[in-house]
User: Fold Efflux RND transporter permease subunit from Hemiselmis andersenii.
Amino acid sequence: ANAQGRSPGEITAEAKKLAEKIEFPPGFGIELAGAARDQQVVFTAMITALLSGIALMYFVLVIQFNSFTAPLGVMMSLPLSLIGVVLALLLTGGTLNLMSLIGVIMLMGLVAKNAILLLDATRQEEAAGIDREEALMHAGRKRFRPILMTTLALIAGMLPVAIGVGEGGEFYRPMAVAIIGGTITSTLLTLLIVPTFYDSIEIARDRAVAKFRRRAARFTVAGGFLLTLVEALLALLLVRLLFRLLMQPLRLLARRRAAG
Assistant:
């Protein structure tokens, strides 16, 4: 097989597919060993570290914002950076290897920083009695320059590494490419999409609190909390949306029959 210019992960995956087509006798099979197995263990550990870091980040933000829902806007901004990572690696001909995965882990904190700057200014405006939408627009104008300056400084610092200057530059290049690509897209999308996420989440929270109060007055506090929690879980799983879509034609038929 031609292994020139290909990553070890691609070669291992192709070799494994070929080996799986072989019919082994009973009691025999295939198992990764050596460098391929070490790489698999490292990738698993890196993904575990990434998820653990995101969970820890959420709990820290819960303490900082004194809210369980406000940090969700920051958490939803994290996947936006992955768009830039994928595009940057595709444009440069890179692959998702150990260094690019390290870049993704570093990127999570950098992306969250921009969203935290934006939402922190928004919540300060809201605490002063300003309407949420007005606070979001004012915070965007207020924090645009600091976010843009830090982004440009980070990109400028990572450019020599992305170009591959110096000894061992090719080894660290995927990390810098992933950081630059993710930073560019996340900065643009953070200023546009994070305010929308935050506003939608807070509107949903206000509606849930209002429903809980009505149900607590009608039933009990525990019953109202349980019903509201189940409704929120169904909404997250899109079950509620599917139920509404299914019920909409039935309601239209019922209205036509009533009108007729």
